[in-house]
Amino acid sequence: MKTEGTVVxxxxxxxxxxxxxxxxxxxxxxxxxxxxxxxVSLAGPxxxxxxxxLNLIGGLDHPxxxxxxxxxxxxxxxxxxxxxxxxxxxxxxxxxxxxxxxVLSARENVEFIMQLQGVGTSERRQRSxxxxxxxxxxxxxxxxxxxxxxxxxxxxAVARAIVTRPALLLADEPSANLDSKTTSELLDLxxxxxxxxxxxxxxxxxxxxxxxYAARQVHLKDGRIESDERTAAAAA
Amino acid sequence: xxxxxxLLVQLGWRNLWRQRRRNIMLLAAIxxxxxxxxxxxxxxRGVQYDMRDSAVRNLTGNMKLYAPGYRDDPSILQGFxxxxxxxxxxxxxxxxxxxxxxxxxxxxxSERETRGVTLVGVSPQDERTQSFLGTVAxxxxxxxxxxxxxxxxxxxxxxxxxxxxxxxxxxxxxxADGLNREAGFKVVGSYDAExxxxxxAFAFTGxxxxxxxxxxxxVTEVSIRLNDGANETAVDAAVSHxxxxxxxxxxxxxxxxxxxxYEYSNVAILVLFLIVMIALSFGLVNTLITAVMExxxxxxxxxxxxxxxxxxxxxxxxxxxxxxxxxxxxGIAAGIGLTVLFADGIDLSNFAQGVEMVGLGSRxxxxxxxxxxxxxxxxxIFLGLIGSGYPAWRxxxxxxxxxxxxxx
Lengths: 236, 408
What we know:
The complex is a heterodimer of chains A (236) and B (408).
Chain A: E1 6-19, E2 22-35, E3 39-43, H1 50-57, E4 65-70, E5 73-74, H2 80-90, E6 91-94, H3 106-117, H4 121-134, H5 150-162, E7 168-172, H6 180-196, E8 200-205, H7 208-213, E9 216-221, E10 224-230, H8 232-235
Parallel strand pairs in A: 3-8, 3-9, 6-7, 7-8
Antiparallel strand pairs in A: 1-2, 1-4, 4-5, 9-10
Chain B: H1 5-16, H2 20-60, E1 63-66, E2 95-109, E3 114-122, H3 124-130, E4 137-140, E5 151-154, H4 155-160, E6 168-174, E7 180-192, H5 196-201, E8 202-206, H6 207-214, E9 221-226, H7 232-240, E10 247-250, H8 251-254, H9 256-294, H10 296-304, H11 309-341, E11 346-347, H12 352-357, E12 363-364, H13 370-397, H14 400-405
Parallel strand pairs in B: 3-8, 5-7
Antiparallel strand pairs in B: 1-9, 1-10, 2-3, 2-6, 2-9, 4-7, 6-7, 11-12
Helix pairs in contact in B: 1-11, 2-9, 2-11, 9-13, 11-13
């Protein structure tokens, strides 16, 4: 099913984990949707279910019940390989610990997904240089992750996530390893990407600063959505 | 979507150098194992071909023609005559040479001793390419030609008869009419065949001279030598088509022990290789599992951003193949180098009696065969892929989320 303007649609989404024989409900019959171009933060204390929801939207985990649609595609129906292809072509990920490929340079990390997609060499090269330059790290393209600061690595991770123009950018605790200055720079960057490139962003975070940049804040508690409201940032 | 092989090879190559010390150790193990296998294969081939050459050169040839029944009753009564101008049906490129012989049992007597021998009438010119007589060390003189009525004895036989070169011996054998013939022969020389077996068993004289003694124009055998690389099976078929009722036997039938050892060597090479490489595969699997388990989180990340499980498997296989190819390349080069180093052969003269028993000469020369090298390459890559299949499977067995949650 594909609702016009809806990138993510979750219906009755539940996820129960087995913790040494004790079932733990991480997500409990959640209905949730994200419209195209939105900037959503999933917030809540540890164990509230925000990361679980993000992982289910990203096809990294399977729901115990309920369904997830991303850009009109129901994830439950997809094989492992089809899920890989969906993530490759429709979803960009930004992880807490950057997760760059250590043996590749910043530019090669950005090109990596395009190589998997089969994009030609010259186009790959141009797009990666353009995106690195637009994120302010064009001169660091040939450095490997180990030669970059945390903030620079996270910028490379963002570049890698958006260079293929995905329908959805998922960011799990993107500021967890960054200081406040670098976090502000990253959030400015995400807002720029959201507003100028129209990339839909969903982020899971504890960080009030991150939440303040989102146009919509969804609070979870005990696996349920406690509140869902638009913020001042939406009007800014 | 096609497999992005260039990307996977690039990643694989760079990943090799992440754990430099461990991979260098693994490379060294592959290098040493492959070099040892190449050299050992060459030595086994050396033994194998030495045994075959010894069998072939000890009057057997690659194949022989006999009259039916000669092998049960090896006398001149089982002789045969070839048609005028007969030539074996062998392409010139395959034929090293051929000869006719008269080979009969005889009793040889000196003034002091008597021995039973096989008296062989030969054409010395033909034997140059045909048997050990062409190259054997001779004390005294060799036979001049097929009409030479003197006798050439082995050094051991000479000693057993307690006689000397230049003295006379008496030979008694059966003529073509079934009656005994007795004749005196001057000992023209003694040959040293690097072993006592041949020296005691065979005495040689000119073929025409022996035919005259036996009162016959018949011969008892035709021996055919082929060049290396000739297709024995095809030649065998062509010759046997052309020889009527005569019996054609190849060296395998005439020297079954040597033939069995020859075949055993083929199996030994494979078994030895498999033992070494399977042992090495365990090391490869162990190293790769460690490498894979250290990178579970990275593989999880790669899958999270869209790399297919199959591509992860191929990446691990590419990495192991690269290690294998590097080790193989170096190992084969070193193995060939060692083979070249021992090209002059390894002296076994201290074990002369022992090696003669298994049909070997006193010098073992390694023989490098490209088919063996290709086999080493093919089987190594095959075993490498099999050995890395399990670690590759382990790499994608972990769920993406579980992988991402693991520490680096």
